[in-house]
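User: My collaborator sent over this chain with a note saying "see what the structure looks like." That's all I know about it. Can you take a look?
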Amino acid sequence: MLPTVLWVLPISLCANDSLRYKAAQMLVVGFRGAMLTPQNHIYNDIKTLHIGGVILFDYDAINKTYERNIFSPAQVKKLCRDLQAIDAKLLIGIDQEGGKVNRLKEKRGFAHTVTAQYLGTLNNADSTRYYAKSCAQQLKKLGFNLNFVPCVDLNINPRCPVIGGVERSFSADSKVVQTHAAIWVQEHHKQGILTSLKHFPGHGSSTKDSHKGIADVSETWTDKELQPYRYFVANPMCDMIMVAHVFNRRIDPDYPASLSQKIIQGLLRQQLKYKGLVITDDLAMGAIAEHYSLEQALEKAINAGADMLILSNNGNSYNPQLAKDAVDVIEKLVQQGRVESSGIDEAYRRIVALKNKLKP
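Assistant: Without extra context I'll predict from the sequence alone. Here is the result:
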């Protein structure tokens, strides 16, 4: 379990915080830069706007270079320390799954990793615990407090370009996935690192990559892909659930999961009885960015029931004003009655509850 809370941000304070503050807390924003300076937009995004979190990358997808945020252990440690010097409650997230989804690469001085598929095939709890512990300890030492793991997608389609094809799934067997995913969560919690189950309601049967466009799972997805989520909801240890951009017309004929009220409110909250925090996958991914404007994506995601929104700034374009633009949009949506202020308040309460799990 996570360590005892050393500071508390009472949920009762949410009534006193402004709409813009609550809206900013919903955002997890990406940025460029290996070091933090007051000239970098992320400095003011944190200090003035009060965004909820940041996400670090090694690869800049726009420039197609490995010159983004991560260069060496010492550099990353200083960057994380400087970020939290602005806001001790800031979420500093990363996708550090291991193997092919590995932002902290061994050639740059970080710890050796293996894929989830390797661990699931080996199916040895001690081995999984060793690598999960190594990962969590490294993240703790560097200053991260959120890792977007574990991937609990079932390996339904081994050729899936974004899951099975890059060995991100532990297994096609839900029990194997549950066992090894639980170990990853436990080891991260021992180090005070929050985790995120992904990619709800299941990406393992897809034939396309949602980074590049719509991944339609209407003909391949089955209810068994929900089993890991049922397990974790029944055995509460997950901090948040990340919703994918997969499209399933059998559940919602109009919207991908991340923008779907039928999937987030209906399937996840009502059917599975999940009461925790919901975060979207990156809204800069092709499945969303190529079909929806920022305003449309934010409106639909929030109305669908998302509590936090990832804006990586690492898709087709880079916008230094992205966080401000998003806060402006959310404020406008509420003022125009297109998003209920009660929904923002509920999201904020879940964010506060999540952050209350952290040490300073």
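A starting point for your reply to your collaborator: The mean pLDDT is 93.
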